[in-house]
Design goal:
Blueprint (H helix, E strand, L loop, with lengths): L1 E10 L3 H19 L2 E7 L4 H7 L7 H5 L4 E6 L7 H13 L6 E7 L17 E7 L3 E10 L7 E7 L2 H17 L4 E6 L7 H14 L5 E6 H10 L6 E4 L1 H14 L7 E5 L7 E5 L16 H14 L2 H15 L15 H13 L4
Parallel strand pairs: 1-2, 1-3, 3-12, 5-10, 8-9, 8-10
Antiparallel strand pairs: 4-5, 4-11, 6-7, 11-12
Helix pairs in contact: 1-9, 1-10, 1-11, 5-6, 7-8, 9-10, 10-11
The chain binds 3-isopropylmalic acid (IPM) and magnesium ion.
Length: about 350
């Protein structure tokens, strides 16, 4: 029997609640599917550990999970620790050294979910956003000098490398080519950002020449927001820089009905390091401990994890169960306008998996 070792890092806030739910459901799915098993190892990395010890993870933390097949991450962030400390101390401390340069964010309107877009029922909105996840505006290059003085200065330098842009373009063109519509939109801002983004555009055009089966277009990021709202059906696969895709993917999640549903995969496509799967909603401190966090974003991230592990049967089975559950409004959590609890949705998922006779 194939065994996959998964490092579970629930992190902060509702991350703990949704990862616990995710483990239960992924285990139920693997048992129902058969042929493989999951072994979860728990890591208590996060802000509580930071407040206690001064570090979000132990100094050899990455070595502890380097050999795992995948990472299931919850969220990072608490009200009393500045967000940039948390981000760089935990999530980016895993993503960047593990070279998880391709961040994949599928967005669809699942059955039973209502889009805030008038007239959009479902099939019109079926997107995958590919986010460059290793450099660009999140490169961490910059500094702050003369603190507190009138001449205080702070810089954040966006860094684009030929290697970094080329590999994300190749990844995005290949992903677009694997989808039925074979259509890619390259998001840019090369009118204003005349160095990095101009190189970004040039490399996109170079990679496009090697992928003649993919129809592609280029769109300025501001115009892209309008197109997402007004012409959603014209979009299929999207590739954008780290910050541009961060912003567009929140818009995408809202247009698809709730940020509680949206999943993401931080992939190291070469598999030199484990890839990391997480819901995008964050730690949501306003609802911590209430038992009403929407676990669907974590379950859908599990689908991406199964796909990455090559367990296509399990991935399809888990996605079918998610769609069965979202189709039933009595199983909607409050973010979707319902009254269901995390535990009820989780139980319904396990029932749907057991009852799935395909
Ligand atoms: C995301 C999140 C993070 C990001 C936050 C938590 C720093 O918004 O994954 O989209 O900006 O990368
Ligand atoms: Mg974001």
């Amino acid at each position: 029997m194939r065994t996959y070792r998964v490092a579970a890092i629930p992190g902060d806030g509702i991350g703990k609640e949704v990862v616990a739910a995710g483990i239960e459901v992924l285990e139920a799915c693997s048992k129902r599917e058969g042929g493989f098993q999951l072994q979860f190892d728990q890591f208590d990395w996060g802000s509580e550990r930071y407040k206690r010890t001064g570090a979000f993870m132990p100094s050899d933390g990455r070595d502890q999970i380097r050999g795992h097949d995948a990472i299931l991450f919850g969220s990072a962030g608490v009200p009393d620790v500045p967000d940039h400390i948390t981000l760089w101390g935990l999530r980016l401390a895993i993503c960047q050294p593990f070279d998880q340069y391709a961040n994949v964010r599928p967005t669809r309107i699942l059955p039973g979910i209502t889009s805030p877009l008038r007239g959009v029922r479902g099939p019109e909105l079926d997107w995958v956003i590919v986010r460059e996840n290793s450099e660009g505006e999140y490169a961490g290059v910059g500094g702050r000098v003369h603190r507190g003085l009138p001449e205080e200065t702070a810089t954040d330098v966006s860094m684009f490398t030929r290697i970094g842009v080329e590999r994300i373009m190749r990844f995005a063109f290949a992903l677009a080519g694997s989808r039925p519509r074979k259509r890619l939109t390259v998001v840019t801002k090369s009118n204003a950002q005349r160095h990095g983004m101009v190189m970004w555009d040039e490399i996109a055009a170079e990679v496009a020449r090697a992928c003649p089966d993919v129809a592609w277009d280029k769109m300025l990021v501001d115009a892209m927001t309008t197109r997402m709202v007004l012409r959603p059906a014209s979009i299929d696969t999207v590739v954008a820089s780290n910050l541009h895709a961060d912003i567009l993917s929140d818009l995408a999640a809202a247009l698809a009905g709730s940020i509680g549903i949206a999943p993401t995969a931080n992939l190291n496509p070469e598999r030199k390091f484990p890839s990391m799967f997480e819901p995008i909603h964050g730690s949501a401190f306003d609802i911590v401990g209430k038992g009403i966090a929407n676990p669907i974003g974590t379950f859908w991230s599990g689908v991406l994890m199964f796909e990455h592990l090559g367990e296509r049967g399990a991935a399809a089975r888990l996605m079918r169960a998610i769609e069965r559950v979202t189709a039933d409004p009595s199983l909607h959590t409050p973010d979707l306008g319902g009254r269901a609890t995390t535990a009820q949705v989780t139980q319904a998922m396990c029932d749907a998996l057991l009852g799935d006779n395909r």
